């Protein structure tokens, strides 16, 4: 039962984002600006929750060894993702949508450019977190974490330029859900680490 709750916890944010991606306007225009802005305001707290997929399987106090150091790197990467991707959402989502709705189209390109830089930094941080978390989980639980880790890394690669736009962004969020679910199930089993008798 605990594993099921964990899987629900880590898959809910990417699944929610995938559904939101189905309604995300493909282009920002004067006619889509209000929907664009409202959607990004609603999603502002949702994007950081994507990091739960890496944080939950690592839950607990880090040890004072390589695993502990990598756990801290994963935490830092998740924090960096949450901060910088929220910046993308605020700048290219809320700000660009707001000014596009008021006919100030000259600044939209600059906001998109700045937002894209913030988003890329956030996804790079999430990728570092995924590599660090995958390494810790591999050391703790063995090769059974590899399918989830590989799917999450593939989703990170796609996330660099897909956001949640249909179709690729929606499938990217589904990939995160699958990868996080696989990692959580693999991490819920007994440790695969060899110990001295």
UniProtKB/TrEMBL annotation:
* Transmembrane regions: 37-59, 66-85, 121-138, 145-165, 171-189
Q: Which UniProt keywords apply?
A: Membrane, Transmembrane, Transmembrane helix
User: Could you identify this protein by its name?
Assistant: Uncharacterized protein
Q: Which organism is it from?
A: Streptomyces yokosukanensis
């Amino acid at each position: 039962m605990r594993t099921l709750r964990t899987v629900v916890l880590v898959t809910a944010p990417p699944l929610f984002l995938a559904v939101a991606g189905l309604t995300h306007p493909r282009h920002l225009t004067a006619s889509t600006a209000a929907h664009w802005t409202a959607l990004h305001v609603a999603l502002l707290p949702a994007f950081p929750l994507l990091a739960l997929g890496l944080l939950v399987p690592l839950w607990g106090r880090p040890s004072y060894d390589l695993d502990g150091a990598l756990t801290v790197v994963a935490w830092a990467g998740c924090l960096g993702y949450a901060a910088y991707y929220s910046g993308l959402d605020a700048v290219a989502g809320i700000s660009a949508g707001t000014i596009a709705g008021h006919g100030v189209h000259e600044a939209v390109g600059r906001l998109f450019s700045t937002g894209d830089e913030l988003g890329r930094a956030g996804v790079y941080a999430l990728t570092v977190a995924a590599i660090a978390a995958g390494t810790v989980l591999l050391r703790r639980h063995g090769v059974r974490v590899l399918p989830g880790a590989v799917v999450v890394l593939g989703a990170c690669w796609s996330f660099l330029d897909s956001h949640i736009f249909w179709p690729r962004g929606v499938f990217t969020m589904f990939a995160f859900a699958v990868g996080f679910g696989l990692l959580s199930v693999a991490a819920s089993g007994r440790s695969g680490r060899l110990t001295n008798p």
